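In practice, a research group might receive sequence data for several interacting partners and want a quick structural hypothesis before committing to experiments. The following worked case mirrors that situation: the sequences arrive first, and a predicted assembly follows.
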Amino acid sequence: MNKTKITGILIAILGLLTVLIPTQIFKVCEAMDGKFMKCHWTAQVEVALGIATIVIGLLIVLSKEKAAASAYSLASAINGVLVILIPTVVIGVCGSADMPCNSGTKPALIIAGALTALVGLINAVLYLTSKKKD
Amino acid sequence: MSNIKESFRFGIRNIRKRPYRSFCLMLAAVIGSYALFVGLSLKASLNNGIKRMQERMGADFMIVPEESEVKAKNVLLTGEPEFFYMDISVARAVADIEGVECVTSQLYFTSLSSDCCSTRVQLIAFDPDTDFVIHPWIDEKVTEKVANGSVIVGSEVTPLPDGKVKFYGNEYQVAGKLGETATGLDNSVFMSRDTMHGILNDAKAKGYQFLNPEDDGSYVSTVLIRVKDNADITGIEKQIYEKAEGIKFIETDKLVNDITVKLGSVESIINITLTVLLVFSFVTMILFFSVIFHERKKEFAVLRILGTTSKKICLISLTEGITIGAAGGIGGLILGILTVFPFNDYIENTLDVPYLMPAVSAVILYGLLGVVVTTAFGSLASFLSTLSLAHAETYYTMRAGE
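A structural hypothesis for the assembly, expressed as tokens:
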């Protein structure tokens, strides 16, 4: 198995983790009195971002051209940054440190997002700087 | 010296040439270092938490309504917002008892939600004139005095950017922040009785309904007592029960002891897991190195034929062991840091016991210890595996299998 496929699978796994963190591993808060809190909407967006990252990872595995693979890697890096920004800046989570979304989901998503961004960026840079032609 | 340098270069090249084999070996070191760092940090945090709780308890005894003992413990240990009330006459009766050094009372109230925290928080009204448990903990003083209309917040309560907290639509100035106590009080907001009265009136004016009785000054939730040195505790307890009915006398030392027992079982689980993972890490490394070096017997024999001394071969394998142990140790440490620091609050909420991270110097020490131990594991495992090959005759090794 070549490095492209391994990186693609790794990005797809990180995407799957992004989906599983707010829904299964560190579940966000339940609705209170029928009212959803911010973390619920954060989870919804993260699931969408996670699915997009899985698709990008699979596209990296399937891509045969260097330029395409590097573009997909860059896209996964951007997705990783978005995974971090959603619970921290864009939507946020509940304010109290006691809430599971704040103490569990948020740090887990930040780590998953950072890893996705790092792997995607390194992969893109490696593709762009490699001398081997398509 | 050049011998060592050359052996080192050779060892590193061996590791780089076989990335999958090296990765598997490193994984064992990662597990060992991770277990050591996380295990020691957890143990230290638990011990630190109970120690801080003991220090910050302030009072020797608490008096609470008879049926509310569990609720009072919940407020103190988990910060779970609760409210319970008894007549203020209990506080007055206790003050006259021989051996009692100081007495103060507190009134608990539960907010529906606070705009700063998006959740219910425990509001505690204390008496600034008699208080001996809140003031000594104030870590950050914003204003010199806790004026009427201002509050003191627990270490985990985050005020709004303008330094205020909001309850029922009204903002209140934060006069100070308490240091970490590792108890539920870290999530509480403290204020004078008048300030609480103001909050309740504002809330009622906005249409909020409360289950609590009217705050007309005749109720308290808990009475906190500090006794003089060598005071007759049993005598004091007896006199309190004679003077007041429907109350429960809680010794804070006993409360701490109960938690220490609970902590003991958590610590045993950590100890067992830590030992199992460390043994697993070491045994796996020995097995891996033995199998790998056994497979590389011919490679070592060729080196011997080419004139490499046994000492140099030993140095090469030692370099591999040290490098793999150290790299795995650093990997485990990074994973450990990613577990212990970001999930600090999650671990605290899950364990449900006082939990407070130790000083940074101690955490650094645990990290270094993890790396040193796995490096030692790696070097020892590679050394033991090389020793087993040292006595083999080069000629027979080369001819083996023919």
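Before designing any experiment, note the following. The mean pLDDT of chain A is 90. Chain A touches chain B at residues 26, 37-38, 94-100, 102-104, 107-108, 110-111 (CB under 8 Å).
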